Amino acid sequence: MSRPEKTAKVNLLRPKEGHMRDEVHIILAILFGWGVCTFGFQFLVYACRGTGAGSLLTRLTLFNLPLHFWFTGQLLPLWFIVLCVIFNIYVDRITEYHSRRRDRSYE
Amino acid sequence: MNDSSWSIFVVLLVLLSFILVGLRQKSRESQEYGFGGRYTGRIGGGAAIASNWMSAASLMGLAGIIYLRGYQGLAYVIGWTGGYVLLLVLLASQIRRFGKFTTPEFVGERYGSPAARLMAAVIAIAISIIYCVAQFKGIGLIFAFMFDIGYEQGVIYGALAVVSYLVVSGALGVPRNQQLQYLVICVAFIVPLMWLARKLGYFWLLPQFGYGRALTDLAREFRIDFTLPFAGDSLFEWCALCFTLMVGTGGLPHVLSRFYTVPNVRDARWSVVWGLFFIALIYWSAPAFAVFGRLLEARQGIVFTPGTARAAADVIALKTALMAGLPGWLVGMLAAGALSAAFFTVAGLLMTGAASISHDLYYSFMNPRASETARMQVAKGGTLVLAALVLLVALNPPGLIAEITAVAFALAGNTIFPLFLLGIWWDRANRYGAIAGMVTGVLCTVAQPLLGGVLPGLTSYFPVTASALCGAPLVICVMIAVSLATPAPPEEMRRFLEQEVHGHLD
Questions:
Q1: 20 to 30 Å CA-CA from B54: which of B43, B283, B348, B360?
Q2: For residue B225, with 0-12 CB atoms within 10 Å meaning exposed, 13-18 middle and 19 or more buried, which class applies?
Q3: What are the DSSP calls for B467-497, one per residue?
Q4: Which of B84, B283, B501 sits opposite A84 (nearest CB)?
Q5: Nearest CB to B269: which of A46, A58, A91?
Q6: Using CB atoms within 10 A of its CB, is residue B368 exposed (0-12), middle (13-18) or buried (19+)?
Q7: What element of type H or E holds A62?
Q8: Measuring CA to CA, how many Å separate B412 from each of B223, B252, B389?
Q9: Residues of A in Cβ contact (< 8 Å) with B243
Q10: Which residue, among B182, B148, B73, has the nearest Cα to B401 in the 3D structure?
Q11: Alpha-carbon Rg of chain A, whole angstroms?
């Protein structure tokens, strides 16, 4: 009797249990932080044009730069670095955790 | 010495120092270091990533586009830094575990198809050519500035210089010392900026923050608002450009193959963080050149018309330094930094492109029994052909440096990024999907120039510099649909992906 074929073993949206699932969780979290701050903020600036909130975003200054310009030109690149650091720390941790688990299973 | 002879002197000094350091490195390398190149650590790896990345687009194009378009230009800053997040979280460690270093090799292996490999090689070469055109424009402008000649002559001399440097360094086997190169580029860019800020009376220790006051002065004295969001362009255009540059970064062949000089996956990941930091250091500074340049122009009563501004944009960093009356050696340093960035990017791209012609097109596809000598000759001829092609286009450049570069990113984001993304994260993707995806991606990239006249709607959804916002998702959908409609890829490849690429810790 032939066994049913095992399909879709690697799928970003349906990760298998263990290391891959942990990794995919952090990937999705980082991508969320990346997308919301990059594009979400631009939507916000666009949507608030001509309103009080809009003028708050474009007139309030930080380091003499209007808030929106400072956010996009200076904070976002820094935020990307922070995201990469968080990702690396987390992946280092799950790698260690799963390596230990794997080693024990061979004991 | 006047400004231009100073810059010639500094440029020659820099190029010579690279050759000398390269030679020293070579003699040390053969004794001390084994396979896989020199171990440089995470910071060194980061500097290598950054110097590999820095090109005329970063040092000249970025300031130019911000000078011209203000807030819209920041899409380039965000696109070119945010792409590294995508690269790190989605691709870096997996590609490394996959073990294929160049784009055609990866595609050929993962999708098991010589045709897909051939297409990927042609696309990678096309990306190199477009990217090189932008660099050649930068080199031509600096040569024209240094020798006080016309742009076209500048490009021709520049091309001759690059090709002869390639011949000399190729014959010597000079390995490029990328950490030193980053240091040179970074110092050459930031020291003149600090000087400039000091001369204009702004906070000079960190000119990246000091230009804020210049921006305020520009608005107060001349009523020029540099920061108006979405003034000339729409939100869609901003986001499309930004997204295109991001996915393009994740798909650029010479960036993807950067992860193999560091000994392990963990160091590779951390060196991306350092690389991003080093890149951001330059990208925080570029807007300052644009703002200072605009302010100086306004103070000197130079009228800012779209035509003259477009002509001045790509050399705005140099022009600003000249307008402010910076010492000649400092202007020379700035020119040398930009020139060496463009120079080494071109050298790297031409060599990779020629290797691809020789290995992926000639050896693997046309003549598998070719001898080593024949392959070498094809590679050398390939370098010349590529350089000649690039020169031909660069004589009459189709846009600003940053814009030409963006087209290369759009092509990479529409074709190679989806191939890698699905190739690594979806085991069901197969060769038919890959080929259909590549064809769709190329069509999306050329939609505006080729079909824009017939179907005007295409122009708004697939603008030539920013086609990947609609293009990349479309290509991914096409790849998924075609893959599902055709037989699954071989079980061995799926098992390899599950066990080696993703299951190494199960």
A1: B360
A2: middle
A3: THHHHHHHHHHHHHHHHHHSPPPPHHHHHHI
A4: B84
A5: A91
A6: exposed
A7: strand A61-62
A8: 40, 6, 20
A9: 39
A10: B73
A11: 21
Q: Which residues of B128-161 are buried (b: 16+ CB within 10 A; e: fewer)?
A: bbbbbbbbbbbbbbbbbbbeeeebeebbbbbbeb
Q: What is the pLDDT along chain B (506 residues), one digit of tens a residue?
A: 566 677 778 878 877 777 777 676 655 544 443 334 455 678 888 888 898 899 999 999 999 999 999 899 999 999 999 999 999 999 988 888 888 878 999 999 999 999 999 999 999 999 999 999 999 999 999 999 888 899 999 999 999 988 888 877 765 544 457 788 888 899 999 999 999 999 999 998 999 888 989 998 988 888 888 888 887 788 999 999 999 999 999 888 888 777 766 678 888 899 999 999 999 999 999 999 999 999 999 999 888 888 888 888 999 999 999 999 998 888 888 998 898 889 888 988 888 888 889 988 998 888 888 888 998 899 889 999 999 999 999 999 989 999 999 999 999 999 999 999 999 999 999 999 999 999 999 999 999 888 878 888 888 899 999 999 999 999 999 999 999 999 999 999 999 998 888 887 77
Give yes or no for B470 touching A (CB within 8 A). no
Chain A residues with CB under 8 Å of B230 CB are 45-46, 49
Under 8 Å between Cβ of B136 and B150: no
Q: Where are the alpha helices (DSSP H) in B357-467?
A: 372-394, 401-425, 431-446, 456-461
User: In angstroms, rounded to a whole number, what is the distance separating the alpha carbons of residues B352 and B375?
Assistant: 14
A50 touching chain B per CB within 8 A:
no
Residue B12 belongs to what H/E stretch? Answer: helix B3-32
Q: Which residue has the tokens 């305020």?
A: B216
Reading the block at residue B388, the tokens are 């000649």
Q: How far apart are CA B167 and CA B432, in angstroms?
A: 40
ipTM over 0.90: yes
CB atoms within 10 A of CB B80: 27
Cβ atoms of B350 and B383 within 8 Å: the answer is yes
Pick from B216, B284, B505: CB nearest A102: B505
Evaluate whether B478 touches B440 at the Cβ level (below 8 Å). yes
How is residue B76 written in tokens?
């380039």
- DSSP state, residue B58: I
Answer positive or negative: Cα dihedral of B300, B304, B307, B310: positive
